[in-house]
Write a structure and sequence with these properties.
Rossmann fold, binds nicotinamide-adenine-dinucleotide, alpha/beta, SDR_fam, NAD(P)-bd_dom_sf
């Protein structure tokens, strides 16, 4: 009995890798509906899907910002059945808030947060009626701990996390599962797009110090962080594949053990000053601290390879 998986945002990055990985499941356990806002961007997915296309993978249109498109997509599925929903579509935004318009910020909230809400308004009632289903949400470590110049993006992921925490309690009553996947940096289009947009930020709207922090500290470190800590979309797909095949999937799953120390700080200090202080020192006080922590994290990664099976895809 195949499970029906619906994934959003599959034209690139994590969504594309997820669709392909799940469609190529060794035991053929899944029928994947890989959805995207704009079908004309399906070329990469078609190529990557190979022989699974038309068998265990089908491509459909779905825009998470458009309720009609979500309904039309779900209506087109056999018996409207979705066993596993993977909410992946999302967008980033970096820079000082003084340089961003409320409209731009609303688009991020509308995609990352209300996109998930819209999907669930359409799919949750059916899952409740069947008393079965798994809701998987691609969140971020920034849903747990905010990071410099990611104010609105972090807020959108915090919104996702709070929403899911609240819903998870009700879901238990209906035998439904919810899992938040929390990647650290992943090298995808996302990262390039966000960086390119960041570079274009009109810094004339902000004071010199803020502009300097953004260009000379944040943007300079941006690529270094992705190249030293970044995972591949295939890594995230492998982690997510494990989560959807588990009998008792966890509510939260961080894909990058390098980030565990940072998110742990949050729980270590109930006053909340510790992570802010450490991030401040890492970013502003001296590059030395930053490099030292990177090396420390690399060491942790080296050590954790041995102890965390999920950390390393077994391909
Ligand atoms: P990506 O830009 O390659 O993929 C995002 C996808 O969402 C794109 O295909 C885009 O077209 C799609 N999308 C945007 N708006 C949409 C809409 N209204 N309807 C349907 N699709 C829409 O980037 P990615 O890294 O693969 O991002 C996927 C998810 O992973 C996002 O939710 C992102 O927040 C999350 N994430 C990314 C990183 C990272 O560093 N790349 C880290 C943590 C979490």
């Amino acid at each position: 009995d195949q499970k029906v998986v619906l994934i959003t945002g599959c034209s690139s990055g994590i969504g594309l890798s997820l669709a392909v990985r799940i469609a190529k499941d060794e035991k053929k356990r899944f029928m994947v509906y890989a959805t995207m806002r704009n079908l004309s961007k399906g070329e990469l997915l078609v190529k990557a899907a190979g022989r699974t296309l038309g068998r265990s993978l089908e491509i459909k249109q779905l825009d998470v910002c458009d309720e009609k498109s979500i309904k039309a997509c779900v209506d087109s599925l056999p018996e409207r059945r979705v066993d596993i929903l993977i909410s992946n579509a999302g967008m980033g935004l970096i820079g000082p808030i003084e340089c961003q318009t409320i409209e731009e910020m609303k688009t991020v909230m509308d995609t990352n947060f209300f996109g998930l809400v819209r999907l669930l308004k359409e799919i949750l009632p059916d899952m409740k009626a069947r008393k079965s289903g798994h809701i998987v949400v691609i969140s971020s470590v920034m849903g747990i701990q905010g990071i410099l110049f990611n104010d609105i993006y972090a807020a959108s992921k915090f919104a996702v996390e709070g929403f899911c925490e609240s819903l998870a309690i009700q879901a238990l009553r209906f035998n439904l599962k919810i899992s938040l996947i929390e990647p650290g940096p992943v090298v995808t289009e996302f990262e390039h797009k966000v960086y390119e947009e960041g570079m274009k930020t009109d810094l004339s709207k902000v004071d010199k110090l803020t502009a300097d922090l953004f260009t000379n500290i944040y943007l300079k470190n941006y690529n270094q962080i992705f190249s030293s800590l970044g995972q591949t979309p295939e890594d995230i797909a492998e982690h997510t594949h494990k989560i959807i095949t588990m009998d008792n999937p966890p509510f939260r799953h961080q894909t990058n053990t390098l980030y565990t120390p940072m998110t742990t700080l949050k729980y270590a200090d109930p006053h909340g000053d510790l992570p802010i202080d450490i991030f401040y020192k890492m970013v502003f006080e001296h590059d030395k601290v930053f490099n030292a922590s990177l090396n420390f994290l690399k060491l942790l990664r080296w050590r954790s390879r041995k102890s965390f099976t999920l950390d390393k895809p077994q391909s």
